[in-house]
Amino acid sequence: MEEIKDKNKEFYNNCTQYFEFLRKKGFTDYDFEDEYYFTMPAISNH
How far apart are CA 26 and CA 11, in angstroms? Predict the structure, then answer.
């Protein structure tokens, strides 16, 4: 179970960095954002 939490935290950190990169460049990735916000509640409840 701890490995899953570590992977979830890694995923969250990677996404945060990706969104920050997009903001700095003035880009958007709405397809990924939709998936991210749909997935986050599911993985954060473990």
Answer: 22
